[in-house]
């Protein structure tokens, strides 16, 4: 199975766990059988590999997510990086070109496109496999997944099929309706549009060629901004006559708000949390290393991270966005391909962070114009390179770096350090990168 | 006015703002006219000084609070330190002896004893002044303050006066009753026992001499454990025939739970906090440097500190104690006479803290057996002494100290530093103090 996962932008609806560098699909909140926690993207990836061990997975995303995707899924996953954020049509077109030219997928091979964050069970991926077969057979140019609705939702687009058959031609598409219209659509047999597309690779490559003249993936990458900023639904699906929708009646949840996300949690808390016996329908997600105590609450979600603390009535939590937009925030925590960092202290002329480097990983070789830095290694072993001079380091070692000096650290075992940044104009933008000289 | 303020123990009912080293009376939560915040002890001290600029204030407390009291009230306040925690009779007896022998108060002078944490207005201290006059006149040996009850509380002791006069003889004392009994007492004209005592100094010194033979304050301090571990009410007030109670009808609140404490707050939040318009009767006290966002909550208190996060229905918050008892916690933040510290990171073999030293203050000169330390100065100027070697330091300087080495830092201006502790057995008890060698 060739599958393109669309990994969307930095949602703020799950603040403080999602932020400008961490999207909701990376929040590790779902308990696995071995007792650890996995994120939506890890869950979906695991489910795909379980359904089809040979599945070729490509994630279509922006540059900002690449590091986190490698952190959570390892280095084997394919990533089609969008040079800029546009919409789903350009993202799918570029990923299709990536499949053809980088992954060597043949033009006649079937491809599935699916969002990275549906909360589903294995039967969903079995359904995708079936769609793949339909696409391979070529009974139609484009197949969609229609989710059987469980309530008249205002959050989804609707597809009205021509028949009640398992696979049907499409009568019409309907945009997100109000509740009354949604109920009416459902009476007429409508299905939720699951955002899944199955087609032969050539089909989408042709659509892209209709818009832009390009030779291969790298050429399309360079011409990305020429592709219309439009959704795949508008650009392709709604115009396609030779299209079918396949029904799916299994579990399908969109975990876009705290309300829906907590419904999918197996336990009422993640992290250091205590509730007294008068709490009802309370969920606590605590990423901090201090306890959260909840007493006498009903229908409340509490989420605490290095970015901030949310305490919200579950229903109300869906209205969070404008409030988070107003918070003027520094990124306090991020997971990267090489490890993670956490801001511990912010002063006018200093910033103290904790850095954890995974074994075998290193920082970029870089310098800063306007700040000095001090590293105190607190765990692990590795090597530093400072202005070309290499030295071994271990817990307890201190490295001081003046502004302008080039530096990096390479972790041999997992390595932790406290970094104190000192200067008048401390900014993440004050960073020059260099090729490593060793 | 000679006034002894009884500063009680480490209440856990206001966790996470109160803890083993910070009692509720030190939480800076009350907005003052100049826009800053003051604690209960600061508020009471300011009110006393406003009522009587020459008041001689002595705080009876334990060793653990001395540093914080000086931090909040300065160096001028008298402190009678209890060698061990017993009860109010020994505490008052020792403080009386401190007044006589250290402060030079004459045996015939009147003295007022009062809790450090009633939330009251200036009329309360005017009432204390009046009690002082009664005590000076000698119309009785002991005067109490009887608060006119506003509801049949189960939390207070009751005093039944013989008459409804402003000042009356006492008919009988009643221990904390249930609500029905309380209502019955109130029908019989009972007053709440405000825990205030006025007497001539000699009166209490004699009571102490009845129990223990001592020559002066220092002798009584040494013999402190010989004093009965009993309350002043039991030991003295309830046995005294020549006693009067004075009525007080002004505001008097006991801010012992989050429910009552938040009622006394002038604003709904302290610190970085946002509430949406659907929040009703919500209070947020946020000591962290990240935002708290509350949505759709009713009658809830949120309190966040470096120790942890409480989210509680206000009524339920009075049942907090057993839950806090179960939390196994390291002290993550403390204010001291010399400044403050905050734990930023805890690892198996390292601990990183931020230390802020007030200008002119210094740490003890000390060493550790089992850990190395690194200081990175992030703001201010001062001097370090390491194994007798003195050197000037400023922001950006790094000082490394091996286990066993003696060290201190003296702040010239306000000085901030990041301290990284490194070793296998990091403990607050691993500290040897030395006299400074300079």
The general outline of chain A is globular
Mean pLDDT of chain A: 93
Distance N to C terminus of chain A: 41 Å
Q: Which class do the helix and strand fractions of chain A yield?
A: alpha+beta
Radius of gyration of chain A: 24 Å
Name the largest protein-protein interface in this structure: A-B, 60 and 60 residues
Oligomer: homodimer
Question: How many helix segments of chain A?
Answer: 10
Secondary structure: number of strands of chain A = 30
Strand order of the largest sheet of chain A: 20-21-22-29-24-27
Residues in helices of chain A, as a percent range: 10-25%
Proportion of residues in β-strands of chain A: 35-45%
Low-confidence stretches of chain A: none
List the helices and strands and how they pair.
2 copies of one chain form a homodimer.
Chain A: E1 2-6, E2 30-31, E3 37-38, H1 40-51, E4 56-62, H2 63-73, E5 78-82, H3 88-101, E6 110-115, E7 118-120, H4 122-137, E8 142-147, E9 158-161, E10 167-174, H5 179-187, E11 191-200, H6 201-211, H7 217-222, H8 232-235, E12 243-248, E13 252-254, H9 258-263, E14 269-270, E15 273-275, E16 280-286, E17 292-295, E18 298-305, E19 308-313, H10 321-326, E20 333-336, E21 339-347, E22 350-357, E23 365-367, E24 372-379, E25 381-386, E26 389-394, E27 398-401, E28 407-411, E29 415-422, E30 432-434
């Amino acid at each position: 199975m060739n599958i393109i996962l669309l990994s969307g932008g930095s949602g703020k609806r799950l603040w403080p766990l999602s932020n400008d560098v961490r999207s909701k699909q990376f929040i590790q909140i779902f308990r696995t059988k071995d007792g650890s926690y996995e994120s939506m993207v890890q869950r979906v990836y695991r489910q795909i590999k379980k359904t089809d061990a040979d599945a070729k997975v490509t994630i279509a995303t922006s540059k900002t997510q690449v590091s986190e995707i490698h952190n959570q899924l390892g280095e084997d996953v394919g990533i089609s990086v969008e040079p800029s954020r546009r919409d789903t049509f350009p993202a799918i077109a570029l990923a299709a070109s990536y499949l053809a030219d980088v992954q060597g997928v043949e033009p006649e091979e079937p491809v599935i496109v699916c969002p990275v964050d549906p909360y589903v069970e294995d039967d969903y991926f079995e359904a995708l496999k079936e769609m793949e077969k339909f696409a391979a057979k070529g009974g139609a140019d484009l197949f969609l997944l229609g989710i059987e609705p469980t309530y008249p939702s205002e959050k989804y687009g609707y597809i009205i099929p021509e028949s009640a058959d398992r696979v049907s031609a499409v009568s019409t598409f309907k945009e997100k309706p109000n509740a009354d219209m949604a109920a009416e659509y459902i009476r007429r047999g409508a299905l939720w549009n699951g955002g899944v597309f199955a087609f032969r690779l050539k089909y989408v490559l042709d659509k892209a060629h209709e818009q832009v003249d390009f030779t291969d993936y790298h050429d399309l990458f360079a011409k990305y901004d020429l592709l219309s900023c439009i959704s795949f639904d508008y650009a392709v699906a709604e115009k396609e006559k030779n299209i079918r929708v396949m029904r799916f009646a299994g579990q399908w949840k969109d975990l876009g708000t705290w309300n829906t996300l907590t419904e999918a949690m197996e336990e009422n808390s993640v992290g250091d949390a205590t509730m007294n016996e008068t709490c009802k329908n309370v969920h606590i997600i605590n990423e901090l290393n201090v306890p959260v105590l909840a007493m006498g609450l009903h229908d409340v979600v509490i989420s605490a991270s290095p970015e901030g603390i949310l305490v919200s009535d579950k229903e109300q939590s869906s209205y969070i966005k404008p409030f988070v937009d107003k918070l003027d925030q520094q990124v306090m925590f991020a997971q990267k391909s090489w490890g993670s960092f956490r801001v511990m202290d912010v002063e006018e002329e200093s910033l103290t962070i904790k850095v954890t480097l995974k074994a075998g990983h290193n920082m970029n070789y870089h310098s800063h114009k306007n700040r000095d830095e001090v590293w105190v290694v607190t765990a692990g072993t590795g090597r530093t390179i400072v202005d070309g001079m290499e030295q071994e380091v271990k817990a307890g070692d201190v490295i001081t770096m003046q502004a302008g000096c080039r530096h990096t650290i390479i972790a041999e075992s997992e390595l932790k350090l406290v970094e104190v940044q000192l200067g008048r104009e401390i900014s993440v933008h004050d960073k020059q990168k260099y090729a490593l000289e060793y």
